Amino acid sequence: MKAPAIPANEAERLAPLQSYHVLDTPAEKPFDDIARLAAYILDVPTALVSLIDRDRQWFKARYGLDATETSREVSFCGHVVAAGETMLIADATLDDRFKDNPFVTGGPMIRSYCGIPLKTARGDVLGTLCALDSKPHTFSSQQVDMITILADRVMAELELRRELVFRRQFSTAVDHSPYFLALANLDGKPFYLNATARAWLGVAKDGPMPTHIADWHVEAMKRFVREDLIAQAIVDGRWAGGTTYMRDGIEIAVDESVHAEPATDQYPGYIAVGALERTRS
After folding, report:
1. DSSP string, the chain
2. Is the dihedral of CA 97, 100, 106, 111 positive or negative?
C-alpha cells in the first residue's frame, strides 16, 4: 500500500480548511443532497464529501457509509489532495497503490473510486467529492463532468456556510460593542440598532425603529441631519464631526461618523452611523 504524500503547501492548505469551521459539525442537508446525487449520477452505492485534516479524513456528508472518519494514511482521497487532480480507479485490486489497502482487502471492499478535488479559489485542495463501489466500475467522461460540477457546488456551499458563520460572529461582536452603531437606508430610515444604540434610544430588541436617523439628534440639528449630513456623506462617502444626541431625555455631546455605501446592481445602498459620547474635560 502506498500512503498519500503530504503536499508541500500543507500548512497553507490546512489554514483555509480550518477557516471554514466545518470539521466535526453535524450533518447538513445541502451536503447530504450532493452526496446522494453524486451516487445516483455515477450509479454507485456510496458517495462522500471528504475533508482531509492533518492526520484524518473526515466526512461532512456520507451516503451509503456509516463511518464518520478514517485515517488519512489509508485514504484514497489523500492521494487526490496530494496530486490536486481528479482520480479515477476502475479496479483497485489492479492498482499497486491500493491493492493491499485495508479498505480494498476488507470492508467496504473498495474496487472502483472517483475522487474530484474540492479546491478553493486560491487552488488549495481541502478534500474531495468522491464515490466508490464494491465492484469494478468505469466512469464516463460525461459522469465525471457532472460530478465536477457538483464538487463546485460543494465549494459554493462551504463558502456560503463560512460567510454565515462570519456574519453571525460579526453581528454578535457589533451588538455587544460599547459604541452606538446603527444601519439605515440611503433615505435615513434605520433598519438595525446594536444593543448600545437600543439602550440609548429606549428601543426594545424587537421594538419599532425610529423613523429617521435625525430622530435621535436634538431638535436644532434634525434639519441639518436630514438635509445636509446625509447628502454630504453620500457625496463624500463619509461625514464625521461633533453632534448632539438625546439620551433618556438628556442632551449629550457625541463624536459621530456617518459612512454611506452606494447601491449596486446586487445590493441596496446603506448608511452606517457610529457615535461615542464625548469625554467631559
Report:
1. --PPPPPTTHHHHHHHHHHTT-TTPPP-HHHHHHHHHHHHHHT-SEEEEEEE-SSEEEEEEEES---SEEEGGG-SHHHHHHHTS-EEES-GGG-TTTTT-HHHHSTT---EEEEEEEE-TT--EEEEEEEEESS-----HHHHHHHHHHHHHHHHHHHHHHHHHHHHHHHHHHHT-SSEEEEE-TTS-EEEE-HHHHHHHT--TTSPPPSSGGGGB-HHHHHHIIIIIHHHHHHHSEEEEEEEEEETTEEEEEEEEEEEE---SSS--EEEEEEEEPPP-
2. positive
Give the confidence band of 168 by pLDDT, cuts at 50, 70, 90.
confident
Q: Residues 252-274: what's their mean pLDDT?
A: 92
pLDDT at 279 over 80: no
- Please tell me the total number of residues recorded for the chain in this structure: 281
The Cα 151–Cα 51 span in angstroms is 12
In the predicted model, is pLDDT for residue 15 greater than 90? yes
Q: What residue ranges do the domains of the chain occupy?
A: 10-171, 177-277
CATH 3.30.450.40 fits 10-171, yes or no: yes
What the block records as the C-alpha cell of 152 is 463546485
Q: How confident is the model at residue 280 (pLDDT cuts 50, 70, 90)?
A: low
pTM of the model: 0.73
pLDDT digits (tens, 9 = 90+) for 66-80: 999 999 999 999 999
Q: Does domain 177-277 have CATH number 3.30.450.20?
A: yes
